[in-house]
């Protein structure tokens, strides 16, 4: 029996490497999961593997974050937690950043997670949890990653303020700022070429740490050592 057993959890970004590991680990620990990703095909395939509801959506579409939360609550008969792992990365100096890249980063990494959290507040009762996957660059911006770092710093600021606001309603916010992971994200940038990166941390190990934090009512962050 673990703290996440029977927990009703929406995993957003579940078609990604980290989100997929988190969804599988939660299912293995007995949580009741609903999965959401941008690709309808990959969302359906993961959902079929796990035997859970699929809620595909492009989070940049108007109303999509709110719809995803409503659908998950409707499928699971309520929600105990939302784990938000969707995100995109872009590289290159500020001089070369296009408006299109800036807008996609901010919409995906900051606005959509903020809208998801806002919608989740309407569904989570006392004891509910919102886990947001930000990134280490929120605290330590990196040259060649200004816009990504800024989008994640914005998300972490939302998380830290929301954590204080939501405490009185008994809702916990966990802001997760992983280091570089071995998910291959740097091979899928929406723009630019990655700078030299350190070896990536093992995604399964990091997913386990995040699920542990979800099950630990004292956790507000995850210590990556
Ligand atoms: N990998 C790292 O080194 C690292 C380090 C720190 C933090 N992070 C953060 O961890 C999270 C997961 O990263 P990852 O490495 O697992 O990346 P990934 O494998 O590329 O997964 C990204 C996820 O975001 C989803 N997504 C992107 N744009 C979307 C949109 N407009 N609407 C809905 N979903 C969208 C993707 O959906 P589809 O695949 O269905 O399109 C996918 O599920 C991201 O927030 C990332 O910034 C990663």
Provide a quick synopsis of the model.
With 225 residues, the chain is an alpha/beta fold. It contains 6 helices and 5 strands; from the N terminus they run βαβααβαβαβα. It has a 5-stranded parallel β-sheet with strand order 2-1-3-4-5, sandwiched between helices.
Write the layout of secondary structure elements.
Layout: E1 8-12, H1 17-28, E2 32-36, H2 40-50, H3 64-76, E3 79-84, H4 99-121, E4 124-133, H5 146-167, E5 172-176, H6 203-215
Parallel strand pairs: 1-2, 1-3, 3-4, 4-5
The chain binds NADP nicotinamide-adenine-dinucleotide phosphate.
Please, could you describe this protein's structure?
This protein is α/β, with parallel strands linked by helices. The chain has a single domain (8-215), classed as Rossmann fold (3-Layer(aba) Sandwich). It has six helices and five strands. The protein has a five-stranded parallel β-sheet, sandwiched between helices. Strand 1, helix 1 (17-28) and strand 2 (32-36) form a beta-alpha-beta unit. Helix 1 (17-28) crosses helix 6 and helix 4 packs parallel to helix 5 (146-167). The protein starts with 7 loop residues before the first strand and ends in a 10-residue tail after the last helix. The site of NADP nicotinamide-adenine-dinucleotide phosphate (NAP) has 28 residues, from helix 1.
């Amino acid at each position: 029996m673990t703290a996440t057993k029977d927990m009703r959890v929406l995993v957003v970004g579940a078609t990604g490497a980290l989100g997929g590991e988190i969804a599988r680990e939660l299912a293995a620990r007995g949580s009741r999961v609903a999965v959401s990703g941008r690709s309808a095909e990959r969302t359906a395939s993961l959902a079929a593997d796990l035997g859970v509801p699929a809620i595909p959506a492009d989070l940049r579409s108007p109303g999509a974050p709110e719809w995803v939360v409503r659908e998950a609550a409707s499928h699971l008969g309520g929600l105990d937690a939302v784990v938000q792992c969707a995100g995109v990365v872009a590289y290159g100096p500020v001089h070369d950043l296009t408006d299109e890249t800036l807008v996609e980063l901010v919409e995906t990494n900051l606005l959509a997670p903020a809208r998801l959290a806002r919608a989740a507040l309407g569904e989570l009762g006392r004891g509910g949890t919102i886990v947001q996957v930000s990134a280490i660059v929120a605290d330590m911006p990196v040259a060649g990653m200004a816009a990504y770092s800024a989008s994640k710093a914005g998300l972490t600021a939302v998380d830290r303020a929301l954590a204080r606001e939501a405490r009185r309603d008994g809702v916990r916010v966990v802001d997760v700022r992983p280091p570089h992971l071995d998910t291959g994200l740097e091979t899928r940038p929406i723009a630019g070429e990655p700078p030299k990166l350190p070896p990536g941390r093992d995604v399964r190990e990091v997913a386990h740490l995040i699920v542990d934090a979800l099950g630990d009512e004292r956790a507000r962050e995850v210590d990556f050592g």
